[in-house]
Amino acid sequence: MEADMQPEGYSHNRRDATMTPLCGSHRVDTKNSLLQKSNLGCVRTTSYDLPQDFSFTFGMANKPDGLTAHTVIDNWAEFTGTKNARPPKDFKAMNRAALRAGHTTAKGVREHSTVHDIRMPVRSGSIRRAPFAPDASVTAGTQSGEAESFTDLMAHGYRYDWVLQTELAENLGGGRKLGKPSPTKSTRLLRAAAEHHALQDYSFPPSLPAESTWKMNKFKNVKSRVTALQA
């Protein structure tokens, strides 16, 4: 039996005559989706309809222009260096020159610096060297410990090393056992109360004999229906 399916549209809008379970949200077309009642146990449907145009794009459309990443990387501007750039201004030297010229105000120093431009000296071929020749054994910063095998770490190969390398508690304490804690005021009072309670003579009334014939007044004329005790 062929399913009666609509040829176009979204999958959640299609109806299957064979009642085949479909994935997605299936809702009846209504004019006002806010008045539609949600089915129990189903995801609440949205309050807007999806565009019927499958080529619709949310946001800015990314239209292909034929350029690839290889083309973009090949057209990157290369760094030509700073050998042709002018050195920065030497503001300390310009301020000293303005003071020697007699300018003691900020306006005079600024005007003098505009006319007399002094740049930092250029040191061609000078490269800052390290104060010492670095060696393979030299470590910058805190030195790390010995390299341990990662395989042994994963296999718990060092789980007994700490026990074997650590001294026993008896050896660290010199074999001296700790004494009992000294009694406090509360413990002394509790002990005295317990001793006083033990010395008290609590007498109870004597118990009745096993074969007692005592009965209540209203049961004196009633005969016992149990003649013998069953084991």
TrEMBL record:
<protein>
    <recommendedName>
        <fullName>Flagellar associated protein</fullName>
    </recommendedName>
</protein>
<dbReference type="InterPro" id="IPR029147">
    <property type="entry name" value="CFAP77"/>
</dbReference>
<dbReference type="Pfam" id="PF14825">
    <property type="entry name" value="CFAP77"/>
</dbReference>
